[in-house]
Amino acid sequence: MNNPQILWADDEIDLLKPHIMFLQKKGYDVITVTNGQDALDYAREHPVDLVFLDENMPGISGLETLSLLKESHPSLPIIMITKSEEEDIMDQAIGSKIADYLIKPVLPNQMLMSIKKNLHAREITQQQQTSGYQQEFGKLSMAISDAHTFNEWVDVYKRLVFWENEFSANSDPQLNSMLQMQKEEANAAFYKFVKRNYHDWVKGLIKKASPSNTGTLSYTKNETNDDAPLMSPSLFKERIFPLLDAGEKLFLIVIDNFRLDQWRAVQPLLSPYYNIQEDVYCAMLPTATQYARNAIFSGLMPDQIARMFPDLWVDEDEEEGKNLNEAPLIQTQLDRFRKHYEFSYHKINENSYGEKIVAGLKGLKRYPLNVIVINFIDMLSHARTEIKTVRELAHDEAAYRALTRTWMEHSSTLELFRSIAEMGYKVILTTDHGSIRCDNAIKIIGDKNVNTNLRYKLGKNLNSQSKNIFWIERPQDYGLPILNVSTQYAFCGGHDFFAYPNNYNYYVQYYKDTFQHGGISLEEMLIPLVLLTPKA
Fold this sequence. Notes:
Layout: E1 5-9, H1 17-25, E2 29-33, H2 36-45, E3 50-54, H3 62-72, E4 78-82, H4 87-95, E5 100-103, H5 108-119, H6 121-146, H7 150-166, H8 173-203, E6 208-209, E7 217-218, H9 235-245, E8 250-255, H10 260-270, E9 274-282, H11 289-298, H12 302-308, H13 326-336, E10 343-348, H14 351-359, E11 369-374, H15 376-386, H16 388-393, H17 397-410, H18 412-423, E12 426-430, E13 436-438, E14 440-443, E15 456-459, E16 469-472, E17 488-492, E18 496-499, H19 504-511, E19 514-516, H20 522-525, E20 526-534
Parallel strand pairs: 1-2, 1-3, 3-4, 4-5, 8-11, 8-12, 10-11, 14-18
Antiparallel strand pairs: 6-7, 9-20, 12-20, 13-19, 15-17, 16-17
Helix pairs in contact: 2-3, 6-7, 6-8, 7-8, 7-10, 10-17, 11-13, 14-18
C-alpha cells in the first residue's frame, strides 16, 4: 500500500525540514512547493491526499490558493497554517471549508494529530469502537439477563441503540453480526418480560366511567400499579398538561412510526436550536397507529374510546380510516380533565403542506397548544415494503436511519423545528410506536374477517401451532375492544410476522425483510419522548 501523499506549500519551506523528516519517519511522503501556483500545478497533475497551506505567501495568497484548490478538488482536506490570529482570516478559511487551522509556530505532533484526524479518523474510530464494544459485550449480556424492571430495559435498549448508531459507518461484518445477535437476545428476553407484566401495567389504565356519566373517570386502589411505565394513554396527563398548567406555550409533534435509533440519527440537526431532554416511554399494544395514537390523544384505552365515544372509534373490520378523529379525541380529553386550552391540530402527509404550516406559524401563536402529526416515516416504511427502489435505498437499519436523517434535513420538517424555536415555544417530540424488521414467518389460521396487520391479529377462531405468540383471550382485561364475544388477540415478538397457510411461500417472500409494527419488541414499544427547549 502506498504512503499517503502530503503536499506542503510554504515560502519558508527550507526552515521546516525537521517537521518534514518527522512526518517522513511516520510513513508519509511529503512533497514541498514554495508558492500557491506550484501547489495548484502539482495537485492538478498528481494524486494528493492532504495539503498543508501557508496563509501568507508571495504571488497567489494562501486564501486564494485554498479557494482554487477547493474548486478543483472539493473533498481534498486542506490544513491552513498561519502566523496571523486575525478573526477575519480565520472566518474566510473556515468559510472555504478548511479541514483544520494551525497557528505558527507549529509543533510536529500538532501536524501529526491533524493528519490523523483528517486521513485516519475512520480506521482509528473503528479500532476504538471494536475495542469498546468487545469490552461492553459481556456487560450488556449480563444487563440483558438481569433486567427485571422497565427502567432496566430502557437502559439496555439505549445502550444497544448507542452501539447501533456508532456502527452505522462501520463495515466490520463480524462486529455488526455480534451486535445483531445481542439485539435478538435482548428482544427475546424483553418479549417474555412484557408477557409477564403487561396486564399489571394496564390495570391502572383501565378506568370505569363514573356513575354520573359525565365523562369524568374514577379510580380504585387495586387498579393502580406504581411499577408501571408511562404509557400511551397517560402522555397528556403526565407530560403535556403540567407544562400547559405552568404557562408554557407548547408544540406536540408526533412523528408516526419513529424509533429511538432514528431519533438519535436526527438529534444533531436539532441541537443547534434546542436544549434537549431525552426520555423513553412505553407504547401500548397493539403498537399500531389506530390504537396507540388514539390512546395518546384521548387519554383512554381503546375499549374505553369505543364505549364512551362510539362515533369516534372505528373498528378493524370497517373500511373507514382509523385516524380521522384525532382532533375531536384531543378535545374529549381536555374536557374530561377540565382543561380550557385552545389548540390547533394539523397532519402533514406531504412536504408542500409542511411548507404551508411553516409559512403560517405566526397564526398559531394564539394557541397555547399546537399538535402536529407527521406521517413521512410511516409512509416510508410502507413504501419500502411495496416499492423495490425504496427497499434498495433503505436496505438495512443503518440505511433506514440515514434516509430518516436525509428526509428531515431536506424537508420542511427541519425548517418547522427551526421556526418554532424562533417563536420561543417548547416542543414535545414523540411518536405513537416504532417498527421492527421482520424475517421469520409464523403460520396462523383465522376466518375471513381477521385483520391484515402482520404483527398482531384479532378475530375469532384464531389458531397457530407456534409457541412464540402472546395470546389475549379476554381483551377487555387489557383495555382492548372486541368485535364479538369470541374476539381474541395474538401478538408476535422479536422478528416474527404472521402468515396464512394459503399462498404461504408467496406471502413470506413478499413480506420478509420488511419493517412492520403492531407487536412486541424493544423497537416498537420503547419509543422516544423528547422535550426541546429553545436556546436563547
